[in-house]
């Protein structure tokens, strides 16, 4: 099964994004002018000695998993995590967040749902050390059914300390910090696979110690430890492994990557691959496969960084473009 078979075509999505970006032209000059091009994990604007970094993201169809489990108290964490992790990928410190909650039809039960979402947002803000300063709630019965949750986060970074990938060079080490599981990407494919099988969300995950539903709803990990790493070590590039899997590495450099020691994926990924007949290539361009955040650093920094993270060296930067992943008995290219 392919991701597009479940309704998500990342190539067509990329074309839509290009069409949108082609019509957006810089307007402001001087203070507040855009820094860099659209396409990195964060949008940046000139803020004097600082760059103001901004991100927008949501929880996607993970909210449908929450609905199935009748458990909404962690998707707020996911919403904040998806935004904060994108800020961290430029080296910015997150400071403030606003949420956007869209409701298809106002129902009495939504008081409970929205209350639990608020608990998760509060937990995510605490983990990220940010303030939730406002938001928007919209009732849109003619546009959506159910609930949709998204948000925008703002962070700051000194201009000279931005990590935009420009210093990446062949031979740099590629280090991966582990994910907590599936995070908030690829859930449309995951749900399609499970719903087309004889498994249910209440069944024990094969190879795991929790149910399938409990595994899918695990909150996205927030990588706040990255802030200390960028202060203490020379780091050339950072990548949040979000939608698109390891293809996200192409967002930080035109050089290539030889991933010769990929992290061992959590059981949920092999379960989905086997159950859905998904190719390894499709898995690595859809899911994080155990690597939630990537650090690119010079070799001399490798040992010291690895002592401080829950992760491992997974490969190196190459002169030749493209992403090559060695799985032992097979090699795939993204």
H/E order of the elements?
HEEHHEHEEEHHHEEHHEHEEE
Q: Helical element count?
A: 10
Architecture (CATH level 2) name of the largest domain = Alpha-Beta Complex
Provide the domain count.
2
Q: CATH superfamily name of the largest domain? A: PurM-like C-terminal domain
Question: Care to count the β-strands?
Answer: 12
Spatial order of the strands forming the largest sheet: 7-9-6-10-8-11-12
CATH level-3 fold name of the largest domain: Phosphoribosyl-aminoimidazole Synthetase, Chain A, domain 2
What is the CATH level 1 assignment of the largest domain?
A: Alpha Beta
Plain-language structure description:
This protein has helices at 10-21, 62-69, 75-88, 110-128, 187-195, 212-216, 225-232, 267-276, 280-284, 299-306, and strands at 43-47, 50-58, 93-103, 131-139, 147-158, 173-178, 237-240, 256-259, 291-297, 311-318, 323-326, 331-333. Strand 11 (323-326) and strand 12 form a beta hairpin. The chain folds into two domains: 31-161, 60s Ribosomal Protein L30, Chain: A, CATH 3.30.1330.10; 173-333, Phosphoribosyl-aminoimidazole Synthetase, Chain A, domain 2 (Alpha-Beta Complex). The model has no long low-confidence stretch (mean pLDDT 93). It contains ten helices and twelve strands. It starts with 9 loop residues before the first helix and ends with a strand.
């Amino acid at each position: 099964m392919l991701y597009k078979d479940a309704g998500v075509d990342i190539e067509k999505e990329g074309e839509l994004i290009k069409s949108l970006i082609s019509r957006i032209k810089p307007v402001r000059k001087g203070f507040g002018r855009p820094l860099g091009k659209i396409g990195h994990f964060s949008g940046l604007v000139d803020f004097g000695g600082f760059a103001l970094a901004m991100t927008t993201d949501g929880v996607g169809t993970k909210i449908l998993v929450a609905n199935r489990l009748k458990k909404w108290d962690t998707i707020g964490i996911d919403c904040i995590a998806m935004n904060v992790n994108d800020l961290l990928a430029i080296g910015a410190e997150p400071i403030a967040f606003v949420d956007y909650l869209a409701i298809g039809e106002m129902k009495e039960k939504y008081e409970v749902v929205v209350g639990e979402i608020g608990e998760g947002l509060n937990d995510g803000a605490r983990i990220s050390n940010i303030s939730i300063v406002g938001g928007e709630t919209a009732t849109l019965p003619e546009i959506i059914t159910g609930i949709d949750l998204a948000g925008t986060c703002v962070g700051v970074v000194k201009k000279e300390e931005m990590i935009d990938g420009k210093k990446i060079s062949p031979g740099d080490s590629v280090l991966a910090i582990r994910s907590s599981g599936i995070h908030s990407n690829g859930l449309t494919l995951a749900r399609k696979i499970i719903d087309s099988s004889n498994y249910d969300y209440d069944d024990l995950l094969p190879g795991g110690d929790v149910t399938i539903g409990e595994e899918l709803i695990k909150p996205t990990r927030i990588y706040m430890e990255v802030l200390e790493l960028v202060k203490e070590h020379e780091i050339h590039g950072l990548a949040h492994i979000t939608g698109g899997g390891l293809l996200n590495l192409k967002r930080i450099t035109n050089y290539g990557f030889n991933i010769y020691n990929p992290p061992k994926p959590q059981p949920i990924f092999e379960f989905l691959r086997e159950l859905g007949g998904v190719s390894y290539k499709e898995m690595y361009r859809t899911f994080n496969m155990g690597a939630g955040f990537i650090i690119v650093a010079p070799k001399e920094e490798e040992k010291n960084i690895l002592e401080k993270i829950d992760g491992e060296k997974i490969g190196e930067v190459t002169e030749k473009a493209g992403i090559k992943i060695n799985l032992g008995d097979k090699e795939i290219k993204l």
